Amino acid sequence: MSRCLPLMPIRVVMALLLLSAAAGSFASPADAAAVSVDFERRGETVVIEASTQLNSSAETAWRVLTDYDRYGDFIPGVISSRVVDRRGTTVTVEQSDELALWLLRMPLRVTYAIREFPPNRVQSRATISTLPPLESSYVLTPVAFGVRLDYVGRIGPGWLLLGRIEQGALRRGVVRQFTALANEIERRGTLAARAD
Fold first, then answer.
1. Which domains does the chain carry?
2. What pTM, to 2 d.p., does this model score?
3. Distance (Å, rounded) from C-alpha 108 to C-alpha 82?
4. Alpha-carbon Rg of the chain, whole angstroms?
5. What one-character-per-residue DSSP string does 13-80 give?
6. Could you read off the pLDDT of 42-58 as tens digits, one per residue?
């Protein structure tokens, strides 16, 4: 006998998705990068800012940041990531994620329209079926002992359902993924330094 799950309000579904994406998302002591994250509502827009200073060259950081096909190897929650179109500095990337809701697994497909501004800036627009788009930018800035990585993400109207619990989950998810990206930059920076 099969049992159908009742339809859940979108607020509940989004809260579950965000909590699932953020599960286990706190930075562990082994994380190389110290990350600061600021999360703020500005009218109908949610703005997320993250920053970290890394022990890596700007060139290595750029290679990691634009290594879209390997994101599944080091970004938590990303099952696969592949470039499906490249025209100069405009790139389309498709990602498959799997969100775990306890015993239930939910596939999530994300399409990124990316503009690269070598050697230090990437802008993207992520679309996920019926959800509002996420506009993001990454900027690399050389500093005395490495490179600073700054992220700004803007989620537009339609995410008004985000309450404190959902905002906390979203913040932890951003910390988790941003930290994983920063750690990969530092890991490859260390490998490059050893090779020199």
1. 10-66+119-195 (3.30.530)
2. 0.79
3. 14
4. 17
5. HHHHHHHHHHTT-SPPTT-SS--EEEEEEETTEEEEEEEEEESS-HHHHHHHHT-GGGHHHHSTTEEE
6. 887 888 999 999 999 99
Residues in the chain, overall count: 196
Alpha-carbon torsion angle 78, 84, 85, 89, nearest 10: 20
What pLDDT does residue 12 have?
Answer: 41
Please name which of 160, 180, 151 lies closest in space to residue 21, comparing C-alpha atoms.
Answer: 180
Whether 126 contacts 109, CB under 8 Å? no
User: Distance between CA atoms of 19 and 141, rounded to whole angstroms?
Assistant: 32
87 alpha carbon, distance to own chain's centre: 23
How far apart CA 186 and CA 108 sit, in angstroms, is: 28
- 192, 60 Cβ separation under 8 angstroms: yes
- What pLDDT is attached to residue 82? 97
Q: Check: CB of residue 57 under 8 Å from CB of residue 66.
A: no
Q: Please state, in angstroms and rounded to a whole number, the distance separating the CA atoms of residues 3 and 145.
A: 59
Question: Low-confidence residues of the chain, pLDDT below 50?
Answer: 1-30
